[in-house]
Structure formats: C-alpha cells, structure tokens
Amino acid sequence: MNELPQTRDRREPPRIAFTLVELLVVIAIIGMLVSLLLPAVNRARAAARRTHCQNNLRQIGIGLQSHHAAQGSFPMGGIEWRPIESSKNRQLAWSAFLLPYIEEQALFDSLDLTTAFDSLENAAGAAKTLSVYICPSSLRGERLVEGRGPCDYGGIYGERITSPNNPPKGTMLYDIQISTAHIQDGISNTLIVAEDSRFDDGQWINGRNIFDQAFAINLAPDWENDIRSEHSGGAFATRADGSVSFLDESLALNVLAALCTRAGHEVVSQ
Q1: Lower CB density within 10 Å: C or N end of the chain?
Q2: What is the pTM for the complete model shown?
Q3: Where are the domains of the chain?
C-alpha cells in the first residue's frame, strides 16, 4: 500500500526585523545621544589640551629655575637682535639657550650658536620640533616655520599698555641677563614666559619670540606678538618663581601691565 506523501507546512517563519518607523526612531535616538555626548567629549579634549599646555609651561619654568641655579640668572630673551634691513646678527632665542635644562642637551650640542639662527650650520637642528614648545591647541601644530621648529611660547620683554617699553621693563631682554635680584616686584608677581600660539613666526631658535604686552589677553591683532592662545577665556603663563597660572581675558589692563614688569613697584593682586 502506497504511503500518502507527507504534507509540508508551507507557512514561512515570522521575520524579526524593524519596520521603517522603528528604524527611524532608533536613528533619532542615536542622533540625540551623540548630540548630548559630543559637547562632553569636546570639553574633555579641551581640558586635556589645557593640561598639556600647562605642563609644557611648568617644564619650561623648571628649566628656567635650573638655568638660574646653574648660571646665576635666567637666559637672555635673545642675543643680537636683527633689524629688518640686516642679516648679520645672530638673533638667537632664550628657548635655544634653555635646551640643556629641558632635557635637550644633545640638540643643544648639535647647534653652532656662534652663527645665526638661520645659518646653514643650524638648519638641521633648528628643523626639529619640540613638543614642550608646542601648545596642543595651536592651530599651527607641528608645522615648521620657514623650515624651523615652531614655538608657541614667548619671553616677556615688558609692557607698553601704560607707557612706552623703553627701556624694556620685562624679564626677557636682549643681550642682558636678568636674575631674581633684578626682579624688585617679587618673582611670584612677575611673568617670564607666556603663550602666543597665534604668532605665525614663532620659532624656538629665532629670537623674535619675545614680546612687550600691548593689548588685553587674546585681543592683539594678527600682526602683533602678544599673550594669546586658543584656550577659551585666557592664556597660560609662567612666573619668575616657576609657577604657572591661567590669565583670564577679563584681567584688568593695569594688573596685566604690572605682571609684565620686573621693577615697576606696582601692587599686584593676581
């Protein structure tokens, strides 16, 4: 007797899938979560960059203190300023002379500081980028400036907010070394190095990275060399005692001017 063929259940198993409406709802929820998380991520990144920059200036401050301990003074802001129409002067920067005190002795030894910052003898060494001289928030980043390593920090040459900076009133001067004995306003009340990450020509070997403050923080025009940063609300600076502080954009101009002088005999509350 022939067996009857078994009947097959032709019903398809139910599909497990999103409907279009459900998919759109999920996408909307994900988008909302991303929009909520992104500002927090950006704030965390900005905070990390600020900490990195602060640590750079702290390391520079320690180097300056070590230089003073070893040589009895801070490094000169620069040597042999070069007028625009001249190409003879060396125009070497404080940041080049600080190299042995920020763990860059080998780089320092590779330079010929009897020649100019832009000499052929210094080309290879000057092309090295040093993270300690680069603010992570800088728009320029590690891009070389005319073939030389950038520097987002400058020595304080003085101020011209309240009066002309002549003679220069700061702690980083040309061809003159300043010691703590010269800082009559107190080393905790006197700036020595500060940020200027917007200075297009900043180079760690080039002595142009000093400035006399003329504007409120972060408000100088592009062509100036002044205390400026890409941090929200202000900029970091190192004082002559090695401490690092954040200078708020709202800092009164007379207080800022006082911080940029070594012997102005002003009363500073910042």
Answers
A1: N
A2: 0.83
A3: 40-259
